[in-house]
Structures are given as C-alpha cells and as structure tokens.
Amino acid sequence: MFENLSYLTLQQYWWAVVSLLGAILVFMLFVQGGQTLIYTLGKTSLQRKVIVNALGRKWDLTFTTLVTFGGAAFASFPLFYATSFGGAYWVWMLILFAFIIQAVSYEYRTKPNNFLGEKTFESFLFINGLLGTILIGTAVGTFFTGSDFSINNMNSSTWQSSFRGLELAFNFTRFATFVNLSLGLAVFFLSRVLASMYFINSIDDSTILVGARKQLIINAIPFLFFFLFFLVSITIMDGFAYNPINGKVSLVEHKYLFNFIEMPMVGIIFLIGVIAVIFGIIRGYFYFQECGTKAIWFTGFGTILTVFALFLISGYNNTCFYPSTYDLQSSLTIENASSSKYTLVAMSYVSLLVPFVIAYIWYAWASLNKKKITEDEMENDSHAY
Amino acid sequence: MENFDLALVDWSRAQFALTAMYHWIFVPLTLGTSFIVAIMMSIYVRTGDELWKRITKFWMTLFGINFAIGVATGIILEFEFGTNWSNYSWFVGDIFGAPLAIEGILAFFLESTFIAILFFGWGRVSTKFHLLSAWLVAIGSNLSALWILVANGWMQNPVGMTFNPDTARNEMTNFWDILLSPTAVNKFLHTISSAYVLSAIFVIGVSAWFLLKHRRILFAKKSMLVGAVFGILSTLFMLMTGDESARQVFRDQPMKFAAMEGLYDGEQNAPLVVVGFMQKAPTKENPKKVDFAFKIEIPNLLSYMAALDPNAFVPGVNDLVNGRKEYGIVSYHEKIRQGKIAITALSAYKKAKEVGDTSKASLELSKFKDNYQYFGFGYYDNPYNIVPNIPVTFYAFHTMVGIGTLFLLLFIVVIYYLYKRDISKVRWLNYIALWSIPLAYIASQAGWMVAEFGRQPWVVQDLMPTLSAVSNIDHKSVITTFIIFAIIFTTLLIAEIKIMVTQIDKHSKIKED
Q1: pLDDT confidence band for B513 (50 / 70 / 90)
Q2: In the predicted model, is pLDDT for residue B350 greater than 90?
Q3: B47-76 burial, b for 16+ CB within 10 Å, e for fewer?
Q4: pLDDT of residue B204
Q5: CA of A128 to nearest chain B CA: how many angstroms apart?
Q6: Which of B86, B96, B116 sits opposite A364 (nearest CB)?
Q7: Best mutation target, B3, B77, B88, B90, to test chain A (most A CBs within 10 A)
Q8: Could you give the CA distance from residue A331 to residue A148 in angstroms, rounded to a whole number?
Q9: Which of A299, A369, B300, B463 could form a disulfide with A280 if both were Cys (CB 3.0 to 4.6 A apart)?
Q10: Which residues of B176-185 are buried (b: 16+ CB within 10 A; e: fewer)?
Q11: Which residues, listed in sequence order, are joined to residue A151 by a DSSP beta bridge?
Q12: Which of B16, B67, B71 to mutate to test the interface with A (most CBs of A within 10 A)?
C-alpha cells in the first residue's frame, strides 16, 4: 500500500504525522499550565491535592506525547533531530531538566519522608509548567524565524552561536527573538486556559471552579495578544522557500501568508481551529453554568487544528521547516532531512495503529472521568498524589 | 584521531553512561514488578481473597514510586541521542529512529494510558477492565524494552541496512532483519529476564524483611511465593539466553568476547576463568595490557561455551590485533588500512560529485564499497586503541554471571522452605534474601557494563567509533550538564530510596484484619 506512494508523498505524510503529534502535545500541555495554577486555585492543602490529582491522571500522557513527538521526529526527519538537538544544546537541555523534575513530583509530593519536602516538589511542578511550555513554544517559533547553523557535505552540522540555542530566546537585538518568545508565551498562557477548562470539566469543588473560570479569562487575554503578535509577524515577514527542482533556498516575501492562501485546506483548518479556540473560551467563561464543562473540547480541538495548520505551513508548499539564517542553503526541508523511502514506508504501516491508540486513550480517559474528582475522594483514595 | 576533542568524547560518554546507569537502576524493577503485580491482581480477581488485594496494592505502591523516576531518566536518554550524539543520530537515524518511534506509538501510550487506570481504577472501572489494565501496563513496559533493545542490538551487530554515500548515512533495507536479528532477539530476552530476576529478588528480599521483623507473616509468605516462582522461571530463562548471547558475542564481537574472559592469546581447548585477579602487565606493543596475577580455570569450557566444541579455537586480543590467517582472522592493522581507504574514497567521491566528474566518482565509489566493511577502523592508527577496557569488562562479566547463578540457588532454597518448613523462622535465609537486593542491582549494572564497555570503542560495531559520533559542542557545556544530571539523579535516587523504605516500613506495620 505505502510502497506505491512517491517518496515526496511519504515525506509529506510523515510531516503531517509529526505535525499532528506536535499539535496534540500542545493541547496536552494543559497539564503543565495546570501545574502553574496549583497555588493560584488551591487555597487549602486539600484543594491543592484535588488539583494535583486531577492533573496527575494525565501527566504521563503528556510526557508520552512529548517522547513520541521526539521519536517520530528522529525517525522521519533525522537530520532535523541531529541539527537542532545537537545545536541548540542548552535549549533542549533546559527542556529536559524541566521534564525530569516533573515526572517524580506527582508520585513523591505527599509521600512521607520524601527527602525534599512537599513544597519543593510543588515548585518542581511549577518550574516544569513555566519552562516546559515557554521553551517548547519558543523552539517551535524558530521553525519560522530560523537559526544560525551550517551543514557540510557529510550532513554534519555546526551551530554558530556559543550560546547554543539560548540566543533564540535572549538575543533581543533581533526581531526574531520577539517572534519566538511570543509563540512561547502564547503556548504558556494557552496551556493555562486549557488547564482552567480541564479543572472545570473534571473537578467537583465550587471554590476551585470559580477560580478556574476567572483564570480562564485572565489567561485568555495575554494568550490572544501573544498569538496575534506571532501570527501577524509571520504573515508579514519573509519566509524560507526552496526550489523543488534544484533544492536552492531563497527568501520569499509573505511566504507563510501565501502558504495559507495556496493551500486553502490548511487555511480552512487554521480558521476553524482559531474559531473553535475562541468559541471554547467564550462558552467556558460567559456560559459557564450551562456548558462550561464542554469548553475544553472546543478549545482543545481548536488548539490541535490551529497548531497542526501552523506546522503544515512551516513544512509544506516548498517551505524550509528548519531554516538556517547563517547559511540559507543549509536549511532543512522535508525532502532533504527525511529518512529513506524504505524507512518511511515501514513506519507508515505502524502509523496505521494510531487511530486504535487514540481510541483506547479516549476510552480510558472517559472511564476515569466518569466521576468528577472531589475532596472526599482524596481523603479515601489510597493512591492519591 | 588528532581532529577529535577527546575531552568532549569522554564527557559525552560519561554523561550518557550516567543517564543509562541511573535509568537502569529503575527500569528492571518496573519491567518485572509490572508482571508480578498483574499476577497478584489476577489471583485476587480469581479468588476474591481480600489479602491478595492488599498484597497487590502494596506492591503496586512500590511499583508506582519506582515507575515515575524510570520515565524521567528515559526521556533524557532519548533526547541525548540528539543533543550529545548528533553525528550518530544522522549516521544511523534512518534505522535507529524507527524503533524509537514505534516504541512511542505502540508501547509508551499503552503503558501511560493504562497505568492511570491501574492506579486510579479501584471502584471507578470494572474489575475485569482493571485487571486487563494491569496486564496491559506490564505488556506496554516490556514492549518498550523490546524496541530500544532492538536498536541496541543493531548497534552491536548492524544488519538489514546499506550505506548511502550520497546522504552519508546507513539506510534500512530490511525491517524484519533488524527486528528479528538473533542479536536483537537475544538481547531483549536476556535483558528482560534479568530484569524479572531482579524484581523477584526485590519481592522476596522485602518480604524477608517483613519476616525478620515478625510482621504480616502470611502477607509476606504469599508475596515471597509469587516472587520465588517468578524468579526461578526467570532465572532459568536468563541462563539459557545468556548462554546463547555468549555464542553470539563470540561470532559477532570476538574482541568483546576476549575482553569478557581477559584472553590475550587465543588457544584451542580454551579454559574458562571462573575466578581471576588482574594486574598491569604492559608490553612494548601493548602498554595498556592488564593480565592475570591469579586465576582458577575449568579446562575446555570456554571453547565449548563459544562454539559448543571443546576443541574450538578462541581468539585472544593479540590474535585479533595481529590476525591469524590459519583461522581466517583479518588483523586490525589490515582493517585500519582498509578503513582509511574507505574514508578517503568517500571524501573523494563527494568532491568528484560536486564538480561533476562522474568517472572519478564511480571509481571512488567502487573503492569505497570494497572497503566499507571496516570503515570505522580508518579513524585509528594504533590497533590497541581499538581494544576495550579488559579488566572492567572481565570483572563486570564475572560479577554478572556469578551473582546470577547464585540466585538460582536462592530461589530453589526459598521455595523449599516455603513448602517444607516455616520460612519465617529461618533467619539466615531471610537475611540472605534481604541482602540479595543490592547484589541483584550490582549484577544488573554489571550486565550493562559488559554490553557497553565491551564493545568500545564502537558505537556501531566496526562502522562508527564513539569519537566520531559526538555532537560538535564544547566540552565545558557537557561537563556542566553532566554535573547537573548527576546532582538531579542522585537527589531523586535518595528521595526514591527514602520514600520506598518508609512505605515498606509503614505497610509492614499494618495489622491484618
């Protein structure tokens, strides 16, 4: 079946798979957003326990999505993996540090004799929520603004800055830094919006719910601001295009805006996504009593569509998805950075299992969320975090 | 070699080894206890006996404490392939990436989805679905081990691929050859069975502590029974797969095999060293040589272990370095010569392609293909730099085998006393069981040291040396991250041990209904 597809079609298929995983990851970052709201919403120890336990049932899923996103990127576009991870060393290391301390914090937080104390593990969760979202968003921002690296004829890469990726977030002499950071901050505030909606959906505690509703709108405003800033920036700036015949890379005016127009399906997906995100926010806040619990599904679905479309315009339509501002011709495209055709075919068969995976995740999620989480339950659950 | 930053190589290795060894402290317990918990829960569901429910919940608590930190260290390993070994990531990404992606899609999601049901499903989902979740967590955990070990097996014995000089990487040509490679299959089976043994030792060791403290006797005995039966079956399987692994190493990685036995000069009817102490014995040719000061041997056994033939010739380090024509062994000197030809030809081929000189490109390509088999050797001048650390490999191998074999005896004795005597009164045995826990971890770590030290300097056997696989970063950055990782991992390990010990103590004091 997949053997009959062209190499380019397979590369496009795998860019779509990676994009979808990236989009789901951004949605699942509501766990991280929620971790930054533990003390904002939880006024008592028991309320904080309810919040941590609501998130604790999903943290591993977010973690797994991140790992799978990394694995899929490695498998399908290994040159990106090698160039970005080996180049922007400190950015990825900071993301890793943020995620190591998260994994244990749920399990260890309230366990007796936990060595570091409850507050330390809660601060680990906060750091993970803050750094994880902002850095991942900032790193994705470079898909549009580019990084300074070169690649030799053996496909070995050299990163130009000794700051090893930190310059992408802290070099304020470049406009690109603001664009990168705006996406990072948009992801951060979006994750808090989604987290508020998740709490409204899964917790039965009036104090937390009132706070969550308030946080929903408080975080929606900066999210919309930073997202709009990012969106306007990438539509007015030059984009990185390549010639499919000879592979030559050049700067093209309004490349990303034209990508939306030249790929109308992607444009429509993007629009539906943005509308669904905003619709969910409006429903969650203004129609809180009637349908607030369903807001996460609208905004969550919208998030997936929006991010999916953004990834697609960064890699489709002869666009360099990981551009080099140091040496344009070193820019990575889905054609020059991908695995071999054989590998893409082999993995494509495995990808047929993805709907089955999504189905059982959905079933398991629904099974656990049939009953909302309450304070009473926290006092009686032997495995409560 | 002068073009490589050796400090960078060493620190990158140290960081990866640190992460892998910490990861491997937690993972074996997850792999085995996931099945032990599933077995215990099955007994509970079948019998409806509340004691088994309490047993299941207790071991599930310990499983949960251990699981989280294994996940944390696991993600670091995956990303370190890119951050610290970016040249490797490109050179083998076409092959190595696929198992990693499949691991995520097939195994990690299974594990992470159903672990939430396992922990929080009591009273929320049906008993049958809850039990199914326990088994799916065990299967998911072990499936994740399969894919990463397939990738590791490929690095030890690269098959099912071809080198593409245009992209300068290895590309997969047969997925099934990689998945079903005997090295990969055996590595998986031997590794997971060793993890089951460690988990079984953990269960009987903790249960023995209950017995030593005269607490929850029935609870402890029942736990011990599951642990011992699971342990004895796993040990038998581990010894079987270990035996097969040794033969594979002999065939595919003869230098590692020589290092495992500290064998410098090969011989027919080679004896197996049961116990030995090594000391420095440098020669002019090999200044790093470390040979035996004392050893106890069993005649012919090494030849038999290697080739199922007591008369078989087993090559030593010097035979592999200098070659033995009568046994068809090509010397490292010759391999280095051919490797250098391959490296030069690849570079010349690329240049010829760039200037459009097709006839030269074709000539160089043919030269490259003829010599690619020993490509990695071309990075070296001195063949003795292609010899792994003999004492470390030797001691690690013998520690692993020695302790692993003793465990078989321990499981048999425990089962005997569980059935024939009152084991709660046999204090010496309970002390041995308890102190076997650290021994199991030592054996487990030693096993990885054999696998990874023994294959040095290769990251991909014969094709890619470790020094050419590293990312092009300054070594000070790696030193900094190494220190940060060391602090974080050690802190988390201390936290885990303290929490685990406290939970064991707390649960041991619960009065049975």
Answers
A1: low
A2: yes
A3: eeeebbbbbbbbbbbbbbbbbbbbbbbbbb
A4: 97
A5: 12
A6: B116
A7: B90
A8: 10
A9: A299
A10: eebbebbbbb
A11: A157
A12: B71
Residue of B nearest to A339 (CA): B94
Find residue B465's DSSP bridge partners.
B458
Tell me, yes or no, if A368 comes closer than 8 A to chain B by beta carbon.
yes
Q: How far apart are CA B141 and CA A68, in angstroms?
A: 15
Residue A72: CB partners within 8 Å, gap ≥ 6? A14, A17, A18, A21, B101, B104, B105
Residues of B in Cβ contact (< 8 Å) with A371: 124
The ipTM estimated for the assembled molecules is 0.90
Chain B 79-118, CB below 8 Å of chain A: which residues? 79, 81-87, 89-90, 93-98, 100-106, 108-117
- Residue B1: pLDDT band (50, 70, 90) is low
* Measured distance between the N- and C-terminal CA atoms of chain B, rounded to whole angstroms: 69
Contact B98 A339 (CB under 8 A): yes
Amino acid type, B427: R
CB atoms within 10 A of CB B434: 18
Q: Could you say which of B76, B86, B494 has the minimum Cβ distance to residue A82? A: B86
The answer to whether A63 contacts B71, with C-beta atoms less than 8 Å apart, is yes
Long-range contacts from A375-379, C-beta under 8 angstroms, 24+ separation: A375/A46, A375/A47, A375/A49, A375/A50, A375/A205, A378/A46, A378/A49, A378/A50, A378/A53, A379/A46
B209, B508 contact by CB (below 8 A): yes
Render pLDDT for A59-105 as a digit per residue (tens, 0 to 9).
Answer: 888 988 998 888 899 899 999 999 999 999 999 999 999 999 998 89
